[in-house]
Design a protein that fits this description.
The chain has about 260 residues and is an alpha/beta fold. It contains ten helices and ten strands. It has two domains: about 180 residues, P-loop containing nucleotide triphosphate hydrolases (Rossmann fold, 3-Layer(aba) Sandwich); about 70 residues.
Length: about 260
């Protein structure tokens, strides 16, 4: 498995999509038209849009799981269009294997990449405390709460060795308090580990809380109107306001939320 961690070059973006046009049926029905996105090194960016507008379709193209009809995807300036495994992609469900203990679940990317089980465990073990998972190594997935399972899934994603992570609604299955805590924890970890993150979400509050920039998709592919980026909203954060709960009460938060909602119509 190729690793992109630490490959950031001067003047390049961690991830860049250039003029993507996407379809599931070879071009008969275009879902996304001429979409360009940029993600800086260590940056957290969100992509929002109504259900069915093609957000997950874009993620599949960015992750190399599908090829665009037109356009390209570049990782640190290198064309990786249609090449899977170069960025980490985490789905809404944690997808932990019930037959494996947590330590072996998080080690899967290392083992699949050719590392021995013992070496993989030795590499993963020191990270458990850092990811808030101390003491869970020998536990089974069904013994963990939803939030702890997501932390394990994040650790597994980190061990893929890529410095670009795509998140597809990773917090949506959690209760409100756990969701708030976990997304704050993730953003802090992403900054600490210098991970660039593109997350898709239906939750405008979540997008404004997490991201420095938000891409807004508009369109209705089910009625023949391919989606496109209709706006890019920059989120201004007061320097003195680091806590997400405090930020949600600021004029800057409300202004960004109002702008995103207006763009969504």
């Amino acid at each position: 498995m190729g690793s992109s961690r630490g490959k950031g070059g001067k003047g390049t973006y961690a991830l860049e999509a250039r003029h993507l046009t996407l379809s599931w049926d070879g071009g008969v029905h275009v879902i996304v038209h001429d979409v360009s996105l940029r993600l800086g090194v260590g940056e957290v960016v969100c992509l929002v849009g109504r259900s069915g507008c093609g957000k997950t379709t874009i993620m599949h193209a960015l992750s190399g799981l599908s090829r665009p009809l037109k356009g390209s995807v570049c990782l640190h300036g290198e064309d990786v269009t249609g090449i899977p495994g170069r960025v980490s992609y985490m789905l809404q469900k944690d997808l932990l294997l019930p037959s494996k203990r947590i330590i072996d679940n998080v080690c899967l990317p290392l083992v699949l990449g050719g590392m021995s089980v013992l070496d993989a465990r030795a590499k993963a073990e020191p990270l458990f405390e850092r990811f808030g998972l101390a003491g869970t190594q020998r536990r089974w997935p069904d013994e963990l709460s939803g939030g702890m399972r997501q932390r394990a899934a994040f650790l597994r994603t980190y061990l893929m060795g890529n410095d670009v992570v795509l998140l597809d609604e990773p917090f949506s299955a959690l209760d409100a308090l756990t969701r708030t805590d976990l997304r704050g924890w993730y953003c802090n970890m992403a900054r600490e580990l210098d991970i660039a993150t593109l997350a898709i979400t239906h939750d405008v509050d979540e997008a404004v809380t997490m991201a420095g920039r938000i891409y807004v998709l508009g369109g209705d592919p089910s009625h023949g109107e391919p989606s496109r980026v209709v706006a890019q909203v920059k989120v201004g954060r007061p320097q003195a306001t680091a806590d997400a709960g405090e930020f949600a009460l600021t004029p800057e938060f409300l202004a960004a939320k109002r702008e995103v909602l207006a763009c969504l119509g």
